[in-house]
Amino acid sequence: xxxxxxxxxxxxxxxxxxxxxxxxxxxxxxxxxxxxxxxxxxxxxxxxxxxxxxxxxxxxxxxxxxxxxxxxxxxxxxxxxx
Length: 82
Fold this sequence. Notes:
The chain has 82 residues and is of the alpha+beta class. The chain has two domains: 2-39, YefM-like domain (YefM-like fold); 42-71, no CATH class. 49% of the residues lie in helices and 17% in strands. It contains four helices and three strands. The protein has a three-stranded mixed β-sheet with strand order 1-2-3. Strand 2 and strand 3 form a beta hairpin.
């Protein structure tokens, strides 16, 4: 995570945003009234999806259980029926 002051962030806005977008590097902007974190849209959407999935009862346990299944026992992506 990049830590910067609001003044420095303002001076380097375009470059810092570009780095956040390209490399998914969050920026912690420090101000006298508190801090703000800048995320790429990709990271934000991933975070929201994770929160959504964790809000479904037992979903976390099912995902963790699925991670233990060997790849040989998994169905190929092109064979999945939605």
